Amino acid sequence: MRVRVKGTRELPLDRLQPLFAESAAQRWHHLARRRQEWEQGVNRFHRAGEAIYLAHEGEHIVGVVGLSQDPYAASSRIGHVRRVYVLASSRRRGVGRALVDRVVLDASQNFSELRLRAGSAGAAVLRSSGLRSHDRIRGSDPPAPDPRAARGRGVLYPGV
Predict the structure, then answer these.
(1) pTM (whole model) above 0.70
(2) Fold (CATH) for 3-158
């Protein structure tokens, strides 16, 4: 089935319930944090360039990823790819890559860099879309080292 990816500023909690339930059962708690942040108003994806991206197969949402301004960066031109998740039944079919490709495309309008803090599964999806350490959307200055990388989390930038 063909995957459609749409960006939005609304988080359809009821339609994302299958993703919340599966990710919790698999002990991936990042979507529970996304839901909590949304409900508490901590992150509503309301700033320039921010959005939630939903992957649809037919009428079902099968994947999600967020794009926001990096909360740890001094510049609003640094984006943060947040909480990638694809339903197990839709993995290995290009859903994650479609989500990330759309994020990278849209991010280039508002961000000069993208950062990611993810475990190995999330990082693998992003790397399969051409994201690699220390590349940039545009610009020639090398990114500053990120101390979080030493703790098993990396900073990834899409290459041109």
Answers:
(1) yes
(2) Aminopeptidase (3.40.630)
Q: What is the pLDDT along the chain (160 residues), one digit of tens a residue?
A: 799 999 999 989 999 999 999 999 999 888 888 889 889 988 889 999 999 999 999 999 999 999 999 988 899 999 988 888 999 999 989 998 899 889 989 998 999 888 876 665 666 666 666 665 544 444 333 344 443 333 333 444 443 2
Dist. CA 153–CA 160, nearest whole Å = 22
Query: What are the structural domain ranges in the chain?
Result: 3-158
Half-sphere exposure of 72 (CA within 13 A, CB side): 12
Pairwise CA distance, residues 119 & 131, whole Å: 15
CA dihedral 126, 138, 117, 146 (to 10 degrees): 140
Instruction: Determine contact, residues 64/99, Cβ cutoff 8 Å.
Output: yes
